[in-house]
Specification:
Residues 5-62 form the HTH lysR-type domain. Keywords: DNA-binding, Transcription, Transcription regulation. The protein is of the alpha/beta class. The protein is built from eleven helices and eleven strands. The chain has helices spanning 7-19, 22-29, 33-47, 63-90, 106-120, 133-141, 187-191, 203-211, 228-236, 246-250, 284-297; strands spanning 52-54, 59-61, 95-101, 124-130, 147-152, 159-173, 194-198, 220-225, 241-245, 260-263, 270-278.
Length: 308
């Protein structure tokens, strides 16, 4: 029988390729640097080709080493999914679960649903990772995360998703603003204002513009914020207007600020909140139950937020 690489050897290679540093890779693998170096040397001897270029100061993968590392990621992910499948068969809602969440969802949804999750799944150990969508998907595909809470639509590739809520958009401005005279705000009118949005990289920016049909409309963008908290402070200081998701408004993000909230007229534009996971994951039953509980926690339909 042809000798095959071990998962341990492949894990060592991926760690070095990711970090280009033996010490950091050894620390990530929880082994000594000598053990990691020996494991990679064994892999190179087995394959009969160098996988890393080493000098006294640097290490970098050869073209073959980089390709093998990419294939190794898929093998390691599949092996982890096999383990997850076995554990899930015993109790789908027990053990650790690494969940990603984007910054425009986490601070507003997690505090709201966590009591229900603890009550429903007392044996589930939930570890949260907050980051932007693209990086969360990279971690999900790489096996670092089990699932993620994202806002859709977003291109995801070979990922499964279950919608758990619709998060409607609302117009926010100062009380003296001309658009406060009406009970609702029209997207075309919003497009003509100094619209404050999150910076590029935050999917909420694109969702708000697309849902409100503003992505192709002429508009003024005077500020790009790094968080929704920053945006509302800018609005409160008279720099413009903004669009906020309903979950942020209901969480009290405008509390203490002299600002007005208006629903958008028409078809009440929204973003979709969904739980997503790898299609190959062995914990699909876990994610379905988790999604059902999240959906139930958010099922109460709120009236348009009142002015703080």
């Amino acid at each position: 029988m042809k000798p095959l690489p071990t998962l341990r050897q492949l894990r060592y290679l991926v760690a070095v390729v990711d970090r280009c540093h033996f010490g950091q890779a050894a620390e990530a693998c929880l082994v000594s640097q000598s053990s990691l170096s020996a494991g990679i040397q064994e892999l190179e001897d087995l394959l009969g080709a160098p996988l890393l270029e080493r000098t006294r100061r640097t290490v970098m993968p050869t073209p073959l080493g980089r390709e093998i590392a990419e294939r190794a990621r898929a093998l390691l992910k599949d092996a982890e999914d096999l383990v997850d499948l076995t554990r899930s068969a015993a109790d789908p809602m027990a053990g650790p679960l690494h969940l990603g969440v984007i910054p425009t969802i986490g601070p507003f949804l997690i505090p709201r649903v966590m009591p229900d999750l603890r009550a429903a799944f007392p044996n589930l150990k939930l570890y949260l990772r907050e980051d932007q969508t693209a990086r969360l998907l990279d971690r999900l595909n790489g096996g670092e995360l089990d699932a993620a809470l994202l806002a859709l639509p977003y291109p995801m590739g070979d990922i499964e998703a279950l919608d758990i809520a619709e998060d409607h958009f609302f117009f926010v401005c100062l009380p003296e603003h001309r658009l406060c005279a009406s009970a609702t705000a029209h997207p075309i009118d919003v497009a003509m204002e100094d619209l404050l949005l999150l910076e590029d990289g935050h999917c909420l920016r694109d969702h708000a513009l697309a849902a409100c049909a503003l992505d192709s409309a002429p508009r003024n963008t005077v500020f790009q914020g790094t968080s929704l908290l920053t945006l509302v402070q800018m609005v409160a200081n008279g720099l413009g207007v903004t669009l906020l998701p309903q979950m942020a408004v209901e969480s009290g993000i405008l509390r203490g600020l002299n600002l007005e909230v208006r629903p958008l007229d028409g078809e009440r534009p929204f973003r979709r909140i969904a739980l997503v996971w790898r299609r190959s994951s062995g914990r699909k039953e876990t994610f379905r139950r988790l999604a059902a509980t999240l959906k139930a926690s958010l099922a109460v339909v709120s009236a348009p937020p009142a002015t703080p």
